Amino acid sequence: RSGRSAALRARMEERLLGARFRYLNQQLYTGTSRDAARLFRADPAAFHLYHRGFERQVRRWPERPVQRIVSYLRRRPASLVVADFGCGDCTLAASVKNQVHCFDLVPLSPRVTVCDMAKVPLAAESVDVAVFCLALMGTNLQEILGEANRVLKLGGTLMVAEVASRFEDTRAFLRAMAQLGFRTVSKDLSSSYFYVLEFAKTGPARPGPAPGLRLRPCLYKRR
Ligand code: SAH
């Protein structure tokens, strides 16, 4: 009997965690990056819960997007300086020889510099590669990508790995990216789970709204 009730209890806890994860996840995708920073500053436990949920989701996928970014960097010189926006557990930094600046809201690893990705403590034009791996979460995408543009050297690389179903209109998205100063170098749409997009910085963003810069929130189904 006690075995059965323990199992029941575990199942209930799982469901509760799942529900909280989905709720936090929804908040991250429907507010600005500043809202996210405030949320996790107020409740660091929520952050750890979010990460457990994130891990569980991504483990279901046949391949982790961050591994694609790792392979990409290994094909390029290790002297390139990298900035990882929304680094999570710093898998990227741990997997390459490059100097990697790791930014996230709460430190899952001692390598992390805690900050809002819309305002990172790096000098202008100081990095060769900026990475957003499943990290374009806030609704202030233009501001976030503007920050990546600021810290990137001219001709530097922007790598974006994002959930495929978030793109409503990929062409409009890429046009908006061009307006933000990012030329599309390659797009890998081969995975049905996520896209990997490579851009080169052509210059500063052209001013004005970029209406095509829209991504759907990534909302997970209840299981
Ligand atoms: N890039 C990692 C983690 C992806 S999960 C990987 O691929 O495994 C998305 C990460 O973005 C989370 O760790 C989350 O805390 C972070 N994040 C979300 N909003 C952020 C913000 N405003 N500033 C910094 N990090 C943010």
Automatic annotation (TrEMBL):
Keyword annotations from UniProtKB, A to Z: Chromatin regulator, Methyltransferase, Nucleus, Repressor, rRNA processing, S-adenosyl-L-methionine, Transcription, Transcription regulation, Transferase
GO biological process: cellular response to glucose starvation; methylation; rDNA heterochromatin formation; regulation of transcription by glucose; rRNA processing
EC numbers: 2.1.1.-
Subcellular location field: Nucleus, Nucleolus
Origin superkingdom: Eukaryota
Keyword Nucleus: yes
Molecular function GO labels: methyltransferase activity
GO cellular component terms attached to this protein's record: chromatin silencing complex; nucleolus; rDNA heterochromatin
Major subcellular location class: nucleus
Stored InterPro entries: RRP8, RRP8_N, SAM-dependent_MTases_sf
Assembly information from the UniProt record: Component of the eNoSC complex, composed of SIRT1, SUV39H1 and RRP8.
Family per similarity comment: Belongs to the methyltransferase superfamily. RRP8 family.
Task performed by this protein: Essential component of the eNoSC (energy-dependent nucleolar silencing) complex, a complex that mediates silencing of rDNA in response to intracellular energy status and acts by recruiting histone-modifying enzymes. The eNoSC complex is able to sense the energy status of cell: upon glucose starvation, elevation of NAD(+)/NADP(+) ratio activates SIRT1, leading to histone H3 deacetylation followed by dimethylation of H3 at 'Lys-9' (H3K9me2) by SUV39H1 and the formation of silent chromatin in the rDNA locus. In the complex, RRP8 binds to H3K9me2 and probably acts as a methyltransferase.
PANTHER family the UniProt entry points to: RIBOSOMAL RNA-PROCESSING PROTEIN 8 (PTHR12787)
Protein name from the UniProt record: Ribosomal RNA-processing protein 8
Species of provenance: Chloropsis hardwickii
Gene name for this UniProt entry: Rrp8
